[in-house]
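does this look right to u?? uracil version
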Amino acid sequence: MALIPAAIIGKKRDGLALSKEEINAFIAGFCKGEIPEYQMAALAMAIFFQSMDAAETSFLTEAMLRSGECLRRIHPTVMRVGKHSTGGLGDKTSLILAPLLACFPVHVPKLSGRGLGITGGTLDKLESIPDYRTNLTQSEIEKQLSDVGCVITGATGNIVPADKKLYALRDVTATVPSIPLIASSIMSKKLAESLDALVLDVKFGTGAFMANQEQAQILADCMINIGKHMGVATDAILSDMNQPLGKAVGNACEVNEALDVLRGSGPADVTDLVLQLCAKILVLAKQFPSVEIARSELQTQLHNGSALERFERMVMAQGGKLPSPVLPTAPAHPLLSVQRGRIVGIDGQKLGLAVIQLGGGRKVAHDSIDPSVGLIMEKRLGEAIERDEPLLQILATSQTAQDVTPLLQSAFTIV
Ligand code: URA
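got this back:
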């Protein structure tokens, strides 16, 4: 995954002075095939270099959203809430957040994606559960929201077709790293969930899309602005991805860690991030007057087993069979530190590449995934380590574990 070059973010630009009508006509024409790809590529390039102002970015998002269908609302009085994360290593928050929120009188219709690049996708993680379906229809989504309150599935057939076409073009014209293009791409898909409240988790650091906090803030502000323009209560938190979230990085192992959090015994950083996001969402959705009150109610639902039960109901409703107590994973091989010292750097890009090399992620879109492989972090940033003490466990066959060992060793800076 390409990190966004600081030069592209930092420059002040004035936008393109495009009207709403011009943007609508361009996107509609592109989707119908009346505007050829070379002209759309030229516009993407113009946006990449000149940026767009806030109004243009909102109009672009709206035009993309209108290119397809949105999820229907069958319970207009029940608040619909959502979360989007810009993706980080070991980020399994959606698996916990959706059932936890569904313990309250809100609906959580989550359309998730697959992993491409170093960060995993929620659908791939859930598909490590035997028979879990990620291709629900609109009617199945509606029924499940009524019965369970939450659903995590792939986008149905005709959600934001403009983004599919435009993203493919951005990919081959190297125009992915542009804030208005990223923000409109993400927000058009989130707004298709027909939400009342949305919280964005914008990640920064070595294991994230945005390299630093300043860039993450610019992207967050841009997306909040779009949400508000579209009448959705939107807020964001920035979260540090200079090391994986939690201990598990992979697919089955991340589901197992999410289950640990739902059982009240997961890693503190994952639990805390989930509680922060959920509390903000419930306040935005007017369920509680403050994040402190929301957080304490959420903790109760997490610790009394209600959120776990909701997760099991969601999995069952989507055809999945959760083996007890955990999903099987590949054998663990320790990666031993070659020196004594303190861990001052963990390169998330390298850890993510190692997981792909093990077969836990994709090099190209049609690659299949081995859900059993991954990494279990043993040490965190700032911790002391002895020579021959494990930095992490590699879940893989012994040959593939050996193959990724040099790459994984180089991911740690120890002084
Ligand atoms: N994720 C998206 O959905 N779109 C982008 O442009 C970048 C990340």
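The pocket of uracil is lined by residues 176, 181-182, 185-186 (CB under 6 Å). idk if thats expected tbh
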